[in-house]
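Let's practice the habit of predicting before peeking. Look at the sequence and jot down your guess about where helices and strands might fall. Then scroll down.
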Amino acid sequence: MQSTGRTGLVKRERMPVSGPAIAGTCPCPAITSTGVRAMTPVVMALCAAMLGAIVIAAGPVEADIYGPELSQMDRDRPILFMNTDGRWLTRFSPEPAMPRQGFGRADFRVWSYPASEVETIERVSGEEKGPRIPEPMVFDLVRPLGEKRGAGEINVLGLVPLRRTSKTVDHAPDPLGLARRSSDRQGMEWAPEIEYTVADGISIEFEAPMENASLEAYKAAGQLTFGTGFDHRFIHGAQVIAQYDRDPGLWTTSWLYLAGYRFDQTWSLFAMVGPRFEHGGQIGGRNTEMLANVTLFADVSDRLVAGIEVNHAQVINGHTTFLVMPQAHYELGRHWMIQAGVGARFTQDLAIPQIGFRMIREF
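Done guessing? Here is the structure:
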């Protein structure tokens, strides 16, 4: 997830943040099958509109945040300057010991060193030229797009229903669970996982979805970064997920396109979209779902990010599940982060409020 600067190396300046936090509550009205189905085109149109915002220019950005090259005069020497939050910072090249004649290299970017600042987890894509974008809490990435080789983490996701009614949707006994074809045990859904970047921009993940003390599935994922665009405001890639549900014993695969966009110093957006296929079984005669996840983030402070995550899954010619999860991400220290939120899932005539959390330990 979030990448940590290596000890002893100059790291990028933290982005000065300002603006309101994203806050919200999720009302849970009774939603009928007809109502949920009627919402589908609206939700898909909303996702398309938010993705379309990626191609809209949001105005000029600061060089020390997004990395355009400096003028030749500025490249000739480090520059001491005062940041907006009153900290003195010094700009350097990516290699602090680089000879001055090397500052003209094409890959030179603006870097900063905040004196006496305690290092914490950076909410930032791993690519040096990429935008700093957090990750969704419920449907997270394998690692940040563009992550450098050798970074990794372990984390645990938890989803606690505040109310539970056992129902089936498209003959799936646990439509709101992490393994929807497994039996619903009316308990807490949780999943420990380990993530590792095996090469620059290429990451893998292994996860064990569980409900209460029962192991329900085995899950593995791979992720690839394509690159950046729009003056490094935009970053995109792809993710493939394979999951084996132990009961009733079938495979699902998900094929997702990933895209993130940084609007300004406060606001950023991340989206995932693609199909999920079921192999070896059928969901009411239909075995394909379309997935869409869109999360809007606001940087509240150096350590706090607020966001609202919307997750939509539509079984082809079947029912819809819909998640709304307002959330907050807080850095506890250099290697620790906690994410938490309260929202609700809807499907057919179900409206189930949930508490979500994710504890992260980087290494």
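How did you do? Residues 1-33, 53-124 have pLDDT under 50 and may be disordered.
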